[in-house]
What we know:
Chain A contains 18 helices and 30 strands. Chain A is of the alpha+beta class. In chain A, strands 9-10-11-12-13 form a five-stranded antiparallel beta sheet, with helices on one face. In chain A, a hairpin with a 4-residue loop joins strand 11 and strand 12 (about 415-420). The longest helix of chain A is centred in the first third of the chain and has 44 residues, at about 40-80. The radius of gyration of chain A is 41 Å and the shape is rod-shaped. By secondary structure, chain B is an alpha+beta fold. Chain B has two domains: about 10-80, Arc Repressor Mutant, subunit A (Orthogonal Bundle), CATH 1.10.10.10; about 90-125, no CATH class. Chain B has helices at about 10-20, 30-40, 45-55, 80-95, 115-125; strands at about 25, 60-65, 70-75, 100-105. In chain B, helix 1 crosses helix 3 and helix 2 crosses helix 3 (about 45-55). Chain B is elongated. Chains A and B meet through helix 5, strand 1, strand 3, helix 7 and helix 8 of A and helix 1, helix 4, strand 4 and helix 5 of B. Strand 3 of chain A pairs antiparallel with strand 4 (about 100-105) of chain B.
Amino acid sequence: MIGLLKEIFLQVVISSLKVTFIISVLLLLTKPIEIRYRAGFRYYSWLAVMLIFLLPLYSIGIQYEIEIPRFQTEVREVWEQSAVPEKTDTVIQESNETVKCETPKPDSVFWLALLWMVGALLYFVIHIKRYRHFKKMIKRVSHPFSDSRVEAILAEEQVRLNVSKRLSVRVSPIADTPLLTGVFCMMLVLPSRDYSNDELHLILRHELIHYKRNDILYQCLTLVFLSLHWFNPFVYLMANAIEIDGETSCDEKVLENEPYETRVFYGEMLIKFLKTENQKKSYLTTTFFGGEQAMKKRLTLIASKKKRKKGAAAMVALTAMTILLSLTAAASTIEFVDSKEMVKNSSNRENTVVMDTGEGYDVFIGCEPVCESKEPVKIPLKSFLVFIDYKVISENEKTIVISNGNREIVLSTNSKTAMIDGTGVALTEAFECTDAGYYLSLEDIETLFSYQVSYDPEKNNVILSVTDETPEAVKNIAPPTVRPEDHIAPRKVTVLTQGNTPSVFIEGMFVTFPDAQPFIDEEGRTQIPIRILAEELNCQVTWNPHTQGITLISTDGVVITTKIGDDKLFVDGQKIQMDTTARIIGNRTYLPLRFLSEALRFNVFWET
Amino acid sequence: MKQFEKRLPDAELEIMKVIWHNPTPISTSEVKHIIDEEGINDWTQQTIQTLLNRLIAKEFIEKGKRGKEYLYTPLVSESDYVSYESKVFLKKVHGNSVTSFIRALFNGKNMSAEEIEKLEEMFREMQK
């Protein structure tokens, strides 16, 4: 319901913008149009514009309803796929999140949409109420009227205009102008005064033309349009123009095929009425547009001798242009709905990650990017994988291996190195595993997968675009090297223990430890200052003081991670259980040589 | 001129309209006859009598006697009364008429005598 409301609201806003454009064009062209074409052209051009813009709204509303079920199942599927079978607690947690994203939270767009709807309803209801009140009032201040002379003239004009329905005529002592009113039951009200036959002919004809043209119905449509676009000042300008054009075009019809003297007579009659009725309305305070503007236009037209074109061709052109504009509006809206707006909508409900696959957008709701305090933005790995056709091959608490069939990527938690097909790639952020699952920073997504990532902090939207070229970072990676364990000649490390101080030899060369020295711990394991040894073995060592994590990358690309105080080593994500722990003594980090050798696949010979 | 403190209820106004638009003095049965003819309200003699009595109390009409019948004469003219309501009415006629479902012959709202004069001059000028 909230989604539908927002959807409709956005449609209205879009069509309001388009309408504003058309209204501006038509208002700017007022002068040339008035010179060339009849007033009827202008009057009906507004009608065409309104009708055309009331239509697409409806069709898109339908389309949206079809959209919903498909969209939701998609979301479910995503979650089902991303859920890991053996981790039942995660499944429960994730399915809870799915429920959450189906009942979206209200946001600013929603409140605006609500404001719009309340405004539109109020505008409409208030005007209908006012009208009903007016109709009651007009009955009070007028009375049925039967005058054979008026009846005869009315009948004559009805025949002339081919109007068969009988109108009820009333007379009111306080009305200052003849008027026609009534949505369902038309009523003609005349001010009580003396009219000449000629005057009556013209007055009745004028009102009958309003009646015949269904001008009141036109007003109803205008009210609907105004209610929908109540926030758009241009629409009020249009309403004002409709009012004036309605009268000028009616005058035009009244005077059709009449001699010029009648035109003069008609204009003088209007002025006479204005003068005599002027006293009645000294009370009226300022209104937005005075009647003068309208009267001036009407009198100008009445006095004009110029023949004007109906402008049928121009009307066709205008209609076509408007339809085209409204269709492009509709088309772009559909696109909007399918892609960005849908994304925006869904992202407004729940923060989302959006993928631009080039053919359209894929949205995954529930795959909520995390933006902790400021930088960096991270997105949940598993939900993301589903969309890029990667599968989880294996995973444990610390390591996850994913593959799309061609590439295999190994990620270890708290490690700043990822393995792509056995080659180490540096990550900007350590791979993170929280209670909610694995997270990868956007930059690292860019590095590992060929996507361009942009982040919209306002909406908390992540947009991933497919790029043809592989990101630089991936290019620079050396081609995957085959690393069959047997082919690598094991390096020989000899440990010579004398008393409690072991000496370390690599391929027979004595390793000098400048400060911290190796020792044998309480478990009987030889602990080696890792940095010195690693350098001797041409391994890279990184130390993360925050996580107390050590990462070792061997020349073969084997990634070894552990933590101070931890009794586990992770080798390319594979756990090696140790019977002792990594530790810090002085400023040096120590690792047990025995397990290091297993991880780095060298042989250790112990000698005493 | 009488000051009107409150507008008349619809029913009482209906009776007043009958009195205003027909020869007076007028009897109760004549009023009923006219109302029946209009066919809008289905009032009994008693209802009409009650309404007339209220109008007498409000000093809108006065009661006289001719033979057995009571006859009523208006004390307030229609134009005096309706002008009381005219302000609101005209405001509605000349308000935002696009959405009030009214098609007036002309809309002279907020026009001064000079402005009308000017229009007249312009109109005359244009005929040449």
